[in-house]
UniProtKB/TrEMBL annotation:
Belongs to the OmpP1/FadL family. It comes from the Bacteria. This is Uncharacterized protein. The keyword Membrane applies. The lineage of its organism: Bacteria, Deltaproteobacteria, Bradymonadales, Bradymonadaceae, Bradymonas. It is found in: Cell outer membrane. One of its GO terms (molecular function) is long-chain fatty acid transporting porin activity. It comes from Bradymonas sediminis. Its main location: membrane. One of its GO terms (cellular component) is cell outer membrane.
Amino acid sequence: MKRVQSTSLNSAKTPLNPLKKLSFLSIIGCALMLPSAASASPFEMYGAGGRASAMAGAQTASAEGAAAIFYNVGSLAHSEPGVSGGLTVGLNRSRILLMNRPLGYDIPDLGGYSPAIPSGMTKYERRDTTDVDNLYVLTLGGVTSFGIKDLRAGLLLAMPTSGYVDANTHFADERERIFSNQLHFTLTDQRLRRLDLEMGIAYKVADWISAGLGATFSPGTVMSTNVYLPNVGDQSDVDLNSQIDSESLWGLLAGVQVDFSEQLQFGLQYRSEVYFRIHGQNTIRVGNTGGKDTREIVQVLDWTPSYSPHSVSAGLAWTQGASKIMLDGRYERWSDYRNNHSKPTNFHDTISPRLGYEYSLPGKDDKPGNKLRAGLGWVPSPVPDQTGRTNYVDNDRAMASIGASYQLDAFGLPLEIDWALQLHVLMSRVTHKKIKASNPNCGADVDVICDEVPDDLINPRTGQPFEGTQGLQTGNPGFPGFTSGGWMGGVVVEVSWLP
């Protein structure tokens, strides 16, 4: 079956008026500055669709199909109507190896006067992180024109098979010793294990420019728990009620594609910051006074298990004969990053370059030919050296990808099969904690390795300082240092029906 593209996609290019261009681009630029919030997804790591994944995500000036909603919603206007479905498998062989703890820094057992749980009395032994789970994601996409020549609307969905959303949180400092007593990858694990639903609409404003707007959906949760503890001496006997409400957060996408000629295109896309948040409070009432109970404890809950920053991507696509080369740059505002407990960090902004290549093989019998693809990318880490109290673990990543596209007829249906293989090499990073001559006691504003047992802690029985509390005592899982690295792989398969 011969595939015929709509006339609007192949219309002749007219000369561009520079003032007209500037006017359109100024309007789009203003739209791109609008703020909002949305959701993170597996697309950030492994790409959206087989074509994009095979070219390391270098798609801002040349995105096709429903994947254009993620890379540049303005490019959606150039896509053929159709539907697609696929599977993404993320292989994870990343690791965090802890350095051996030196003697003399353990937290002593001071009985009932211990300000922190003594070393050796935690639930878990301090251990390496070598068992990060793989990721399995089902994807679905669709594009329609609604019968309007220059209009396209689309939907893009990613659904991890593990469920609608994973919401596991971790502390980045010494408090994590009480929970898992190990370190966790900050940006390449739990942050991506969540549903992503994106929608967009685009229009060819003129032969040389198309613009689009989109929205992303992110779930959120507001929870309140009321707890009644009749007898503080028996805390296993509690009465509990909860109120859990869901939130719907919609965020903005905006993009534009400019066709300077048949051979050269430029793309620009803005994506708002993206996060999933759980917040609310616990209200605990203790005992029974026979009248109004005034012994009430209120605990504030605020978690952000998944966060991605505002980003702006710009790209060029150049076609010469059967070859197409795509070059992208992506700016991400990580300085606004909030950790699992919704606290600010000192991350820095990054710029990530991507390079993609596509070669179109000759077709037969007026049918489109198959395509070969490859890509390279560099993703710098926004996380500064963790020489102090926190243990945010992240690495620079070097990306390489290959893939192909095949055209075939199946039972009279014109199908396209795209596949991609990716390799992400996590550049090895060695972290050594800095010990000061006098480490401060742990407190909210302390960012260096802190002393969990104050040197001047007084034994109330003797009126003298406890023995063995002088100097630094810390149970920080990242002390005295750690090494992170390894690799991650992606396998993407997508089937599209383009009638």
